Amino acid sequence: MWENQINQLLGIIRKTELQESVKWGKPCFTYNGKNVVSVVGFKHHYALWFHKGAQLKDANNLLVNAQEGVTKSLRQMRFDASTEIDESIVLLYVLEAIKIEKMS
What we know:
Elements: H1 3-13, E1 19-23, E2 26-31, E3 34-41, E4 46-50, E5 63-64, E6 75-79, H2 87-103
Antiparallel strand pairs: 1-2, 2-3, 3-4, 4-6, 5-6
C-alpha cells in the first residue's frame, strides 16, 4: 500500500554506510551485524523502526513507543497519507542511530 513512500525511505537510508538485509520479512539496515533501522508498512501508516530509538535525541519529537510499557528501546517514526517525507530530517535521525551503534 505504501510502496512509493517506503521506496523513498529506502533510498534515503541507502545513502548511508548501513548494510541492507531482510528481517521479519521487512527491510532492515545493520551496522556490524547489529540492527539499526527497519522500514515497515502497516494498514494505516508506515514507519521507520529505530532499534535503539530510546537513545536518540528526538529533537523534532517524531518518535513514538509503539507498545508503552512493553518496548524498552525500539521507537517508531510514523508516517501516513498526509505526511511529507523530509529527507534531511530522516537522514539526521538515521545518522544519529548509526553513531549510537558505533559507540555501543
